[in-house]
Request: fold
Amino acid sequence: MSFLSQTLSRVKPSPTMAITGLAMELKAQGRDVIGLSAGEPDFDTPENIRAAGIRAIEEGKTRYTAVDGIPELKQAVCDKFKRDNGLAYTPKQVTIGTGGKQVLYNALMATLNHDDEVIIPAPYWVSYPDMVLLAGGTPVFIEAALENNFKITAEQLEAAITRNTKWFMFNSPSNPTGAGYTRDELKALTDVLMRHPHVWVLTDDMYEHLAYDDFEFCTPAQVEPGLYNRTLTVNGVSKAYAMTGWRIGYAAGPEEVIAAIRKVQSQSTSNPCSVSQWAAVEALNGTQDFLPGHNEIFVRRRDMVVAMLNEIEGITCPTPEGAFYVYPSISGLIGKTTPNGVIITSDEVFVTELLNDTGVAVVFGAAFGLSPNFRISYATSDENLKEACTRIQNFCKALT
Ligand code: PLP
Reply:
């Protein structure tokens, strides 16, 4: 019998590792690699937030804090939910963790039992299914098809709910598609959930502030107040404030679940980094003025990438409402052959050949649960994106 845990055997290693490894190898060989796989903004953390972190160090705020966060940050989170989402929470209903990732993980660890099902729209953020498996639950997927702009319908949600459904996991704007649900689209889903009082909502609002054009972000407990008592709303500072390395995420929801999350955290990591918590207080309470400027840059990049991809015969790329990803379909390229004689049988073969031939690194769709597609992160310079898209165009043109 293996020395390793049976639980771990339920989980697959990150499917993106092989492609990342290949990209690193090519780079080491001196090849000109353009990486479009990073899930983080290419901006620096704004100056006022960096200064708050430095101040915290200099003022000696470097000791253990309360397990699930300092009161100042919990209050800032309450104020943020009221200001941005019209949701009223008290600090007792708030938890702070080491990134949204830890908060989601702890929430699942704290609530799932054997046989519990978690509904996850696919494509999904890579960690959702494996977190559910690690916590002993069963992921149940609903296809968010390209034809429906990568969004699920109320009928699909209704059909996926069983007696064993515990959570519905929701992410809008989405990683990997950038798709964002309008208020009406989300209301159609929350109407379904109102008919199934045993189902809770785990909403991941990480890309809330990265919403473009006239798209208006909304979150389930705001759209349907009747769900307030069974919704955990997760968010964080990583994406909006370019703070991926600081590792601060948070959630608000019913006290019982917040206390259970605290219990898990108290026996694993204890408090998130004290200095980062003080920086996050400034992120949430301080000026939000830089957000429109960042978004303007993202919109410009998104529009260029979508236009250049749609010029390619065999590729279809909808324009997403938010985040910094596009998720083009390559269904028109499956079965074609590269000049080296490789047949494109899947999105994984496509991205491997694209990387080998052109040095452009993207992530294949199978990693996110919907194929044949690939994900581009456009959180990189305009020049990089233009060059990468030109290389993708030339690679696809050479397929026969
Ligand atoms: N949720 C989604 C959809 C994400 O894309 C990410 C990061 O890539 C996270 C959560 C986790 O963010 P963090 O742990 O940095 O707060």
In short: The chain has two domains: 7-44+290-397, 63-285.
